[in-house]
Design goal:
0% strand, 175 residues, 8 helices, mainly alpha
Length: 175
């Protein structure tokens, strides 16, 4: 627990912000948070069998808005700016990388094809989240929950753009 006294609600939200013990006990917690988000995406697209891109976008946007408050509570609880154990930002932002991707990575396609695109999304997101290119690093100057979440949202949207560009390029290749 941080140096500040925390209310029961803040303690609960802090536990959510770390995805329980994942953010507090495992090495490279952001990578594990992204992996948990990958499971969420897989359940959404493949297990629940929902292919409506609009409803997916609404749920993920709502999750990111909620994440601002959850991550702010985690920051208050731990008593420092953007604590590494707070990984709900990766968890909520990573699914944004898949906006529109269901058009070319859908259930019923070759599992290797789906695996390659999913792995590529994971690697690109982690790269952009760690390196923070193209001004993403400056977004972390924003205070509170917005500052914690916004750089991950930017990394996810950059990943999404890369996936769409790469897919467009692969359609140009001879078969």
């Amino acid at each position: 627990m941080g140096t500040q006294k925390s209310s029961n609600l803040t303690c609960f939200l802090a536990a959510v912000s770390t995805l329980g013990s994942i953010g507090r006990k495992l090495p490279a917690p952001g990578t594990w948070g992204t992996g948990a988000a990958l499971l969420l995406y897989a359940a959404w697209l493949h297990k629940i069998n929902v292919h409506n891109g609009f409803s997916f976008a609404l749920v993920v946007i709502a999750l990111n808005i909620l994440s601002v408050f959850i991550c702010a509570a985690g920051e208050r609880h731990f008593g420092r700016k953007d604590p590494g154990e707070v990984i709900f930002d990766e968890f909520s932002a990573f699914p944004l990388a898949f906006l529109g991707v269901e058009q070319f990575v859908i259930p019923g396609t070759n599992p290797r094809y789906v695996f390659v695109w999913t792995l590529l999304a994971f690697v690109l997101f982690r790269f952009f989240d760690i390196v923070k290119p193209f001004g993403i690093k400056k977004l972390q100057r924003i205070r509170g929950g917005v500052g914690i979440v916004i750089d991950d949202v930017a990394a996810a949207l950059l990943t999404c753009a890369c996936l769409h560009i790469l897919h467009a390029l692969t359609t140009l290749l001879p078969k």
